Amino acid sequence: MRRGKGKYIIFSFVFLIFGFILAFSYSQTEKDKNSSVKITDRQYMMEKDLREQLISIQDRNQELQTELYDKQDNVRKIERELFQEEEDYQTLAADAEKYRMYLGKVKVKGPGIEILLEDGDYKKDEDANNYLVHEHHVFKVVNELFISGASAIAINGQRLKADSYIVCTGPVITIDGNPYPAPFKISAIGDTDTLAAAVTLKGGVRDQLVNDNIMFTIEKKKQIVLDPILGESS
């Protein structure tokens, strides 16, 4: 009997301990559950607030990015306009310089050719006029040089301009009122090969002048310097 009674006492003690463990576990679980809910609520509110701030920052960032793109477009537009204006100014400056050059207002230099026109040898019993250089001979050479791209031309150092005139007066030729005797040196600035080819073309200017008993000499020059027209304001 005592042995059986001791056995029941042991079982009772075990069940008591087991019940206590269950009760403690349930209590702890409920406590953790309540505590977890409270922490989640705080975290949710913080996350919501941070999310709203992030969205607001992203929206503002998008606005600033759009504003930046607009300003960059305006800058590029201004740059294009300035570049176009600079090109226009450069074109105007180049045109102005070109017109000054054509009008003989400025000194010019560059490669080109020099053509010498001399009176031909004639006999006493022949008409001397058939061996003299006349204005139409000079005109032929000058016109051919201009057509071939000469940028500036001078005759015996006298620069030609848009309204220049050449008149034959006895044994001399008058260029813009200034008389020059033969021989006549015609200097032209431009592409050397092009100018030389133009006046020496078969059947062209040189052959025509030689047929008129004019002595025609041509020489290529690496550099020719032509002074401004005398008596003209710059």
TrEMBL record:
This is DUF881 domain-containing protein. The chain crosses the membrane at residues 7-26. Pfam families: DUF881. Keywords: Coiled coil, Membrane, Transmembrane, Transmembrane helix. Gene3D superfamilies: Protein of unknown function DUF881. It comes from Lederbergia galactosidilytica. Belongs to the UPF0749 family. Residues 47-95 form a coiled coil.
